[in-house]
Amino acid sequence: MTDGTDRPNSPQPGSAQGNGGGSGSGGYGYPQAPGAGGPGGYGYPQAPAAGGYGFPQPGQPNPYQQDPHPQDAYPQEPHQQEPAQEPLPGPAFTPAPQPDWQAMADRSDAGRRTKRRLIVIGAAVAACAVAAATTLWFMNDSDKGADPKPGPVAEGSQSPSPSPSEPAWDDPHTVPGQPNLLRDRTGSTNIALGPQAEQGPGTKRGEIRFKDNPNSYAQGAGQAVDTTKSFTVSARVYSSAKSGSRIAVSQGDGVSYSFELGHEAVNGKNSWIFRVQSGNDGAEATTSQVASDGLKTASAWAMLTGTYDATTKTIKLYVDGKQAGEVPVAAGIWAAPGPIQLGRARHHDIWAGQWAGAMDNVRVWDSALTAAQVATVKGGKSEVKPTHSWLIS
Length: 393
Fold this sequence. Notes:
Layout: H1 101-142, E1 174-175, E2 178-182, E3 191-193, E4 208-211, E5 218-220, E6 231-239, E7 246-253, E8 256-266, E9 269-277, E10 287-291, E11 301-309, E12 314-319, E13 322-328, E14 340-342, E15 345-347, E16 350-352, E17 356-365, H2 371-375, E18 388-390
Antiparallel strand pairs: 1-2, 2-3, 3-5, 4-17, 5-14, 6-11, 6-17, 7-8, 7-14, 8-9, 9-10, 11-12, 12-13, 15-16, 17-18
């Protein structure tokens, strides 16, 4: 095979039995082996010793020379031990990475340290909270004897009312189940808060707060004072207004008031006043007034007490237990119709003198207390039991 195609191959008969394959005459159709001396096969010339016609000369290549291994179609290589086979190509095997035990140990230690720090911080925060709560408790407890400044009252906000989902605030100063109705502690005349008067958990000492507007007031269920007889009225007040006519407690309706207790500009100075009417039209000619002199009226608590002695027809004003003055009321006090009022008074058929600030410990007696008795009217204490009382601390 020399040109890449299979040539025709007709097998020849083998040599005759007994002729010998190597020393006798050639098989049928094949020349005798050179040097054998016998006649050539049929159709083939004898092979001369030096090479006959048509045969290659010595030293020339013979394209018809038979393969040294006629029994195989292809040369056989000497038998050798086959070399070890190379591994087939494929993805390289990568061993699984081993964990970094030192890094894991470091992270574990860091986690334990962080946990210890959080525990220490939590304990410190808890200790601070306990300390703050204890301090607040002591402050609230000591506040019973102090005169705290009321917090700011937002203009236009509504007075608090219990949410349907929340229980009503349990306040001894209000009627049970009615947080906007001040309970009369020693009588039967309760006082209803106006839409923008506040009394509740945000206030101190059971005080009531007013916002200096027509909707910020409180009105009683009826009269608490018989102004034709002797009486005393008292209230602990805080005014945030630095000027103007401000009335803490009054009684009356219709055209004018019967009495009012608060502060007013007198002779160009803000003064605490106790004022009464002897006529029914509120004219200046029928007005009698007692005023303090040189006492602070704004941004400070004060216990105001006014008395009327029907026997002597005299009114007096006391500030923090001390008498500030007195004046006669010859015609007596006019008995105006209408209930007791907190935070406003009736002037010329309109409501005026809106209070700005807070008050508590409002009380009324059906007698004119003496100076010694007035001196005992401090906080919730008094030597004489009042006929009516509200917001007693």
